[in-house]
Amino acid sequence: MNQLFKTPTATAVIIANMVGTGVFTSLGFQLLEIQSPFAILLLWLIGGIIALCGALCYAELAASLPRSGGEYHFIGRIFHPSAGFVSGWISATVGFAAPSALVALTFGNYLAAIWPSLNPQILALVLLAIITVVHSLRRSSSGRFQTSFTLLKVALILGFCASALYLAPNLESISFAPQSNDVQLMGTAAFAVSLIYVNYAYTGWNAVTYLSSEIENPQRNIPLSLLMGTATVVLLYLLLNSSFLLLAPMSELAGKVEIGYIAAKAAYGENGASIMAFILALLLISTVSAMLMAGPRVLQVIGQDYPLFKRLGKTNQQDIPSTAIIVQAIVTGLFIVSASFESILIFAGFTLSLNSVLTVFGLLLLRRREPELARPFRMPWFPLPAIIYLALMLWSLSYIALHKTQQVYFSAVLILLGFVFYYLTCAIQKRNSEKA
């Protein structure tokens, strides 16, 4: 029997998927509109609460409906195969390929900051090629690679925060206590839009559900890894953003993408900033790896369900969907040569949020429609976590729809194309079966 992924690897996939470019870039966009340290940390805490509530919901779904594919499987099973197909379409494009391309490009940009003669796109493509080969060979090597680089990522983040705060010549004289206008600020469009940046940084807490069929004892280990991984990242994000705000003036961070580099420069000087750039590049390796590990499993189950794409469902001698991994890598490579950071961040954040909102709503429907369904893990305090998740997400999405209409139009076009592609696929399959 082929070796299955264990809890440490599953937890590592979650942490690595979550801790990517978002936490090292989005603070600059938030500071353009919000200058309150308390409000900034509150944003990251609310984002963490949303992620934990979502993780509880997905944990029950993954334990009740244990099959790889994530939202593709959940939504298709609860609502309709067409909705599941569109969800898989979104996951394969926006959900994994686009963000992993941005992470790979950020990896290249950090290394190019140290060695200007290097080309960031070439570096990104080389990283993508190496990780594709690793994940296409053996599951054991894939799991060890993911776990090792994730442990390195957590250790480097903790080491950076501790050393930077200790070595910095001066810390900013800011207060994290609430101010008189902070409550008012929470009801503004700026706060709601900033929450989308935060939610994007937390994206990935559901990654292990795409590997359900390859997890050892999934009914126990998936809920455990979801909660452990998400809780760990919430603490890391609060620590990181507190450190960034203490190390560098908000005026220097506002509007900037290279938050980690600016904070490191304030703490260590020019040479230290170069070292930090190299460290951040190392951190991003596990993120690209985790996305290329989870994303192809969506393509795999689509290939298993739709004969037109049966090649995607095939596995090699190690029971690894190598064809799906290669296809995912090719799509990611295309994004690498054409990606634009800020627009794709909002577009991806909005579209993926819609996907997860429908999934959590599906959990409520499933509880009512199939009360006798075996649920090895039942979400505690039902239905409170689901209601909190839906309320906060819909509140934030409504502000995005009002203030970032272009990205919403792009999202609507992508979803429409998914439905068109689904019905064309069904029509072609029907015609082929009639001819046979």
From TrEMBL:
InterPro entries: AA/rel_permease1, AminoAcid_Transporter. Its main location: membrane. Keywords: Membrane, Transmembrane, Transmembrane helix. Gene3D superfamilies: Amino acid/polyamine transporter I. The chain crosses the membrane at residues 12-32, 38-63, 84-112, 118-137, 149-168, 183-202, 222-240, 275-299, 320-338, 344-367, 379-402, 408-428. It is a multi-pass membrane protein. GO terms for cellular component: membrane. It is found in: Membrane. GO terms for molecular function: L-amino acid transmembrane transporter activity. This is APA family basic amino acid/polyamine antiporter. It comes from Pseudoteredinibacter isoporae.
